[in-house]
Structures are given as C-alpha cells and as structure tokens.
Specification:
Rossmann fold; six-stranded mixed β-sheet; 16% strand
C-alpha cells in the first residue's frame, strides 16, 4: 500500500525571527504573501492535518487547505523556556541548555524532552502508513526534525544537525513496510 506524507513547516512567527522558544503565537503579517507563492507547489492531498497551535492552522488556512487538528503534530513543549530567546536561556540557564542539547532524555526546562517528543510523534508514521494516498501535515520544525531522525534511524542527537525553514516541505514515501525520505526539486 503506497502512502505519501508531506510535512509542511508552519509560517514565520516573531519567535522564529528573534530566535525564541515559541509560545502559541500567530504568524507574522508577511507570512500571507510568502504562503501564496507556496500554494501552487503543493500536490493535491487526500487529507490535511495540522498541529492544533495557531501558527499551523493559520498556515493551512493561508494555503486554502481545509484541515483537521491532530494533537500529535503539536510543537515540542519548551516548559519555562517558552517565550524566551535562546540568548536569554543561555544567560539564565547555561547548564540546563547544555544538558538539554547533549542528553535527549532530559528536559531541564520542565517541558518535553527530545526523546519524549520522538515517542509522541513516531506513531504518526504508522497512522499515515495505514492510509492510502497523500497526507499533508502542517506542523513545527521540532516535529519535522523528529520524523526525519526516526525515518533515517539516526541517533536522536542528529536532531540538532537538521535545519527546517518556515514553509518548507519535507516529503516521505512508504511502500507499506517502511518510510523513505524523498528529496525532489
């Protein structure tokens, strides 16, 4: 059974621009014009899912996609770091930040660890594999990184070596037994 999954990163927010750990925030005003350029590049999906957070559902709406919110697609919980810039966290909690980036099992911010997020997100692949056709999921960079690491069978620390741009597309295909990362032009 063939399945295709396109992960669409939500549009730009102030947190992206300022290097902050995101809250549930809206898209920046300029996101609408950037999304319009992307709308023509999307293949027609059989279903569209979004993270329940505002920036993901707004992205789907800007692209004219009727979507269903799926809790599994929500962004990583950054705990008490949410809303703070990386520079602020480095200054206020340098040991916690270093620990978090070196040990995927720990969440010194009181939120969700990388390992916890990976465990939450991984079942999504089985769910989509059981369906036929093309699923588009509008979600967040951390979720997309987690799926890439899972599909590639890479160590969780490879998460930090993946950069996901706002409104980027990451595609996967499945033959019903395994997933493959699909790169295209």
């Amino acid at each position: 059974m063939m399945a295709r999954l396109t992960l669409l990163c939500c549009g730009m927010t102030e947190a992206n621009r300022t290097g902050a750990f995101p809250l549930d925030e809206p898209l920046e005003p300029r996101a609408a014009e950037v999304a319009a350029a992307l709308a023509g590049r999307l293949r027609k999906p059989d279903r569209v899912w979004t993270s329940p957070l505002a920036r993901a559902s707004q992205t789907a709406k800007l692209l004219g996609l009727a979507s269903e919110p799926i809790v599994t697609l929500r962004d990583q919980d950054f705990g008490r770091w949410a809303g703070k810039t990386l520079a602020d966290v480095q200054r206020l909690d340098p040991d916690g930040l270093a620990t978090w980036m070196k040990n995927p099992q720990l969440a010194p911010h009181g939120g969700e660890s990388l390992a916890g997020m990976a465990l939450r997100v991984a079942p999504l692949l089985d769910q989509v594999m059981a369906l036929t056709g093309h699923t588009v999921a509008v979600t967040h960079p951390a979720v997309i990184r987690s799926v890439i690491v899972t599909v590639l069978g890479a160590p969780l620390l490879a998460f930090w070596k993946i950069d996901v741009e706002p409104l980027s597309l990451t595609e996967f295909t499945s033959d019903g037994r395994r997933w493959a990362l699909r790169l295209g032009g």
